[in-house]
């Protein structure tokens, strides 16, 4: 028999860390926060406006061409999209141009990313539009988009009225009679102000961690479901149908039902225009993707389509002859700033939360993505501040909610953008349209704008092709994507976001409740222990079971931990103890009968050896390397485990615990008072624990009671017991 030598594990001495009192830490931070000095003021201002830092270092010859080129291209893309996305937001086209202008200026001053394009975003526009239409419906407005006045006077808040049930309808807002357009933009600006306030609060209180709960599969599924909703909402414009937007849940289902129910009322002029525009736009996108290496700049397909369609509509008099819906009058210049309506905000408090979260999540994630790609760093908290002020300040200038947009950001990156000077150039392009060219879009058909929106969704809708690959890579991620996408498309955007977040968290909890468990074996003569089911040529240590649980141990998976351990080692201590007690009771009865038969009463006491059924192992080593943390329930579970297995003469040892788990066990007095049993229960490696177990058991003399008990009971009766 191989002689077992007791090997002492290496002694690791923990560093003494003195934790400062919470009060003194708070006092120090407060003192540091209120300290005022000239360098601190300068640092705060330059941190708040990063443009002050990088603009003086601007390399004119090296950067200017790329910035001007990308800025002009983005500006050209912005103009038709700004007009088009107003269909989603439920406001007039002029407000999309305002939003694009102010957002680019503010982000130029406050953003830390060199490439992100902030402005109108289809998803944000959709979510704003749902709130706008809901509030207008509750206020009694007719949601038929053609039931409004046209011409310059519609932009006067006191004259904006619409026809409902044969009479003029308006509501009083901030002391003025507010018509349909006035009320819609008032809702949008109040909502945008709340979104900015929420984002500012998240930046001030460092709540950016909220975005970690928005997993990539969940965001992809949410964006795809929202894209399908956008497609559905815009489908009526392709056919020229005048049906109001559905309010409430199930927008996709109800809208498609209404479209097919009214398909006989389709406007053939709008339908033909839509087919032509979609064909041209898709062809332009395909050419761009196929020859992107040869084309130095993106094709301005959207602008060409808008210009051509506007000219065709104007000279062909499509509105008067065929009844097509057109954008209507778009004024030049700027409207006087106005304070958002605070009387509307109590009704919008909950609606603003998902917009705030999605807006900052997309902005921060895109900033970090392109910063990493181009080799520089961004400040996430400053990005939150920037996007919050991109919503707060423009809300005073008749703008709606903004966010970073992936498609335009990718265009900026691919066209040589170097700094946010490109955003300033884009704002100037939009300004030219605002000052001079806006009225020329009067005859632009709404179906053309819907085509631009729908074709821009190609990237998000293509995510359906990635589902099989996503499913093969991770079923959990695939299920999260499908559930989030389905809830967003079939119920509503807000509910889809909530369902996606909750379902993602439930999946994580489920994974911790059903983690992988394994018994470990030793690799040849090394001190490496790995999963016996996953690796070949491993040998289980003699009479020692090494068990690994790959999840945190807390209240929700305590039972799963115990059940998996009992199943792996094959012995449940309570059942084993019950069997032994039954065997002891039976052995006492048999011993008593034998004693009476032999006239010897002393044998009734010698039965201890019968209940000491020898197990296949004497020690369980818990490999805690995959347990990142545990709570008090986990501590109680470990304590109960040690005590229960001690009752059947099985030792439980711990190995590979991280310092957090060790500190938690110490606080719970798992190692006894003053950690007196730590050296005999805790080991730094599995091999050290196995050596300790074998060396300890080899020094325990075998009890002679088994021989005595066996000698006094006949062999046949012993076996039957």
Can you put this structure into words, describing what you see?
This protein is an alpha/beta fold and 721 residues long. Strands 7, 8, 9, 10, 11, 12 and 13 form a seven-stranded mixed beta sheet that branches. Strands 1-6 form a two-stranded antiparallel ribbon. Helix 7 (180-204) packs across helix 14 (352-374), helix 10 (268-290) runs antiparallel to helix 11 (301-316) and helix 14 packs across helix 15. Residues 147-166, 603-610 and 700-721 have low confidence and may be disordered.
Portion in helices: 55-70%
Give the biggest sheet: 7 strands, mixed
* Low-confidence blocks of residues: 147-166, 603-610, 700-721
**Could you report the average pLDDT, rounded to the nearest whole number?**
83
- According to DSSP, the number of beta strands is 13
Output the structural class: alpha/beta
User: What percentage of the residues does DSSP assign to strands (E)?
Assistant: 5-15%
Radius of gyration: 36 Å
Instruction: Label the overall shape.
Output: elongated
Measured distance between first and last alpha carbons = 31 Å
Total number of helices: 31
Question: Strands, helices and their partners?
Answer:
Elements: H1 22-34, H2 38-48, H3 51-54, H4 60-89, H5 93-110, E1 118-119, H6 122-138, E2 162-164, E3 167-169, E4 171-173, E5 176-178, H7 180-204, H8 216-239, H9 251-261, H10 268-290, H11 301-316, H12 318-322, H13 345-348, H14 352-374, H15 380-392, E6 403-404, H16 406-414, H17 421-437, H18 446-455, H19 458-461, H20 467-473, H21 475-490, H22 493-513, E7 517-523, E8 529-531, E9 538-539, E10 544-549, H23 558-569, H24 573-598, H25 608-611, E11 619-623, H26 632-647, E12 651-655, H27 659-667, H28 678-681, E13 682-683, H29 686-698, H30 705-711, H31 715-720
Parallel strand pairs: 10-11, 11-12, 12-13
Antiparallel strand pairs: 1-6, 2-3, 4-5, 7-8, 7-9, 7-10
Helix pairs in contact: 4-5, 4-6, 4-16, 4-17, 4-18, 5-15, 5-17, 6-7, 7-14, 7-15, 8-9, 8-18, 8-21, 8-22, 10-11, 10-18, 14-15, 20-21, 21-22
GO molecular function, one term: secondary active sulfate transmembrane transporter activity
Keywords: Membrane, Transmembrane, Transmembrane helix
Protein name: Solute carrier family 26 member 1
